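pinging the channel bc i need a second pair of eyes. not urgent but kinda urgent?? the chain im working w is below, pasted from the shared doc
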Amino acid sequence: MSSFNKNRYFRTDAEINATARKLVSYLRKLSRSRIAGTVTADDAHRFLTREGVQPEQVRTRLRFINMAFNNNSEYFYPVGEVQSTRPAARGRMITEWAPTS
């Protein structure tokens, strides 16, 4: 169950950092449960929806996703591309990420 009200915006750096840590933890655990060992932004979007971050909160979602995935990330590194399964992404290619050691 989400600790955030569906219409609530993140107001403090502490809230943002706590949610980003939870996202990274979730993605790393998810990657370990998969045969290929990879995750995508689609997985991050599903997590953020469960946390109460609305799809209309595009900048907030992108901020969290960029905190977990970027080319200088200490958590994940890019390994390829796959087609997005989210309807909002309209099938575009997205990066597939593997956890760092």
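so The longest strand covers residues 76-83. and The chain has one domain: 13-99. — does that match what u expected or am i reading it wrong
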